[in-house]
Predict the structure.
Amino acid sequence: MNIKSQLICAHTAPLWLFTCYLGLFYLSGWIPPFSPALPTTEIAAIFDDNARLRVGMAIVAFVSPLFMGLAAPICVQLRRIEGKHHVFANLQLCSAAVGVLALQFPGLFWLAASYRPGIDPDVVATFSDVSWFLILGGVAPAIAQNLCIAGAILLAEKPHDVFPRWLGFFNLWIALTFVPGVMLPFFKTGPFAWNGLFGFWVVAIGFATWILVQYVCTLQAIRRQRESTVD
């Protein structure tokens, strides 16, 4: 059985969450993010020769593939639920793989924006806009992942003890918290802007909550699998 490898992969989740949020919010000082309504010259000044920001964004870009560490054992556990024809499990893994790009590309774009001093402010602002649209607004893969997990749990044809039923409803609720990210390109101020209540706080807190809850439930599922194997 691949119990040990599942546990190793799953334990990357809190490491990824800590390092990613460290680079994206603490080192950059973006808690909350700067306003999208700022003039392009002020946005460019944030990135101009900012070594601390570059370190933070390098961390974000480098650690983003660790997000797949949790997705892999989730896939294994969903296959236990679905059996031989594990459609939801496969789609969950594919959604997570696409979602990694929405985490890695913003870090790289922000790095490019801060790489050379004196870049045209309009170019820097555009790089920044695209990055925020990706990391907070590119929520479709995350929603698909939530729906796949919920679908596998709630539509299971046979009773199982892999994931609790409430986790399916929890994933549906988390999917709803991601929906406001779609509104980012239409607002520069207010609750749906990328520094607003729904555009930032609801999405960011919802995502962190999902990582931690799904991590704990996945560990429990792996351990139940190990116990059933021993018995």
Observations:
- The CA atoms of residues 150 and 170 lie 8 Å apart.
- The mean pLDDT is 92.
- The longest helix spans residues 197-230.
